[in-house]
What we know:
Layout: H1 3-17, E1 21-26, H2 33-44, H3 48-61, E2 63-69, H4 71-83, E3 87-90
Antiparallel strand pairs: 1-2, 1-3
Helix pairs in contact: 2-3, 2-4
Amino acid sequence: xxxxxxxxxxxxxxxxxxxxxxxxxxxxxxxxxxxxxxxxxxxxxxxxxxxxxxxxxxxxxxxxxxxxxxxxxxxxxxxxxxxxxxxxxxx
Length: 91
């Protein structure tokens, strides 16, 4: 096995072990669709279409993953969602 192949294999293994967390947004009976969409655009850097789709999934399924990434990136975003009055958690 060449050195290049070993490095590629090692890189793939490192990518597989990076822990990815998710922000889960939960449905509530308080916030409007427009408010949730606006908040997701501002906090999670969603497009309007992406935020609208997430809000519909939350409405009909009760929850939706709205952002995936490393914990250090998700923690402040989740805090902003909570401060905005949305129900969210990191898993």
